[in-house]
Amino acid sequence: MLISAGVALAAVTLGLVSWQATAPADKDAGSAGSAPAAAPRSDTSAALRALARREPGDKLALGRADAPVVLIEYSDFKCGYCGKFARDTEPELVKKYVDNGTLRIEWRNFPIFGAESEAAAKAAWAAGQQDRFAAFHAAAYADGSKEKGFAEPRLLELAREAGVPDLERFKADLAGEQAAAALKKDQEEGYRIGVTSTPSFLVNGRPIAGAQPLGAFTAAIAQAEAAAQQ
C-alpha cells in the first residue's frame, strides 16, 4: 500500500513532465521530442524506482537483473519517436552500458495508436516467449516498417524476419489470454504513473520524456549509477 501511495504521487510528477512526444497524427520522427524531466522529489522517485521488476526471466528485458541502473521504456511500435530511439540511441546504450552490466532495459508495451498498436504489442510479447523479442523489436522498428502497418499477415512476416521458430505457437500466443494480460499490466502501470505519450522513460525513477539525444540518457545513467554506489 505504501508503494501504491507513492506511485499515486509519482503520477503527478511523470504526468507533468511527459510532454506530448507523439500524437495520433504522428509528428516528424526526425524531431527530438520532449525534454528530460527535473529529478522528482525523493519519495516520488523511490516509488518510481520500485517499478523496476528485475525479474531474471523477463523476456522483454535486456541486461542483468542486478544492474545498478534500470531504464524502463514505455513505448508503441507505431510511434515514430520510439522508432528513432530504437534505431539511433538504444543500440549505443546497449553497447556502452548493458554489455558491461551497468544498465538493464525493461520494456513496457504502451500502445496508444489503436488496434494495430495493440496487436504489435501482443506480437512482441509472443515473440518474446520464444526468446525473439529483441529481434522482433528490431524488425518492427526498422526504418519504414511502421508504414507497412501491423495487420496479422505483417506481424507473421515480422515474426519470420525475427527468426521466431514456431509460428503456430506464435499465432496462438498472440491471440491468447496471457498476451492480453501482460499488455494490460504494462498499460495500467503506465497510466497509473501518468504516462501520456511515447516514448516515456524512467532511469532509476527519474522521468525522461521523448526520444532525447544520446547525451541525455548517458547523463541520466551516469547520475543514477553514481547515486546507486553511495
UniProtKB/TrEMBL annotation:
Signal peptide location: 1-23
SUPFAM superfamilies: Thioredoxin-like (SSF52833)
One Pfam family from the record: Thioredoxin_4
Domain Thioredoxin: residue ranges: 17-226
Source superkingdom: Bacteria
Swiss-Prot/TrEMBL keywords: Disulfide bond, Oxidoreductase, Redox-active center, Signal
Family in the record: Belongs to the thioredoxin family. DsbA subfamily.
Entry protein name: Disulfide bond formation protein DsbA
Native species: Streptomyces amritsarensis
Lineage: Bacteria, Bacillati, Actinomycetota, Actinomycetes, Kitasatosporales
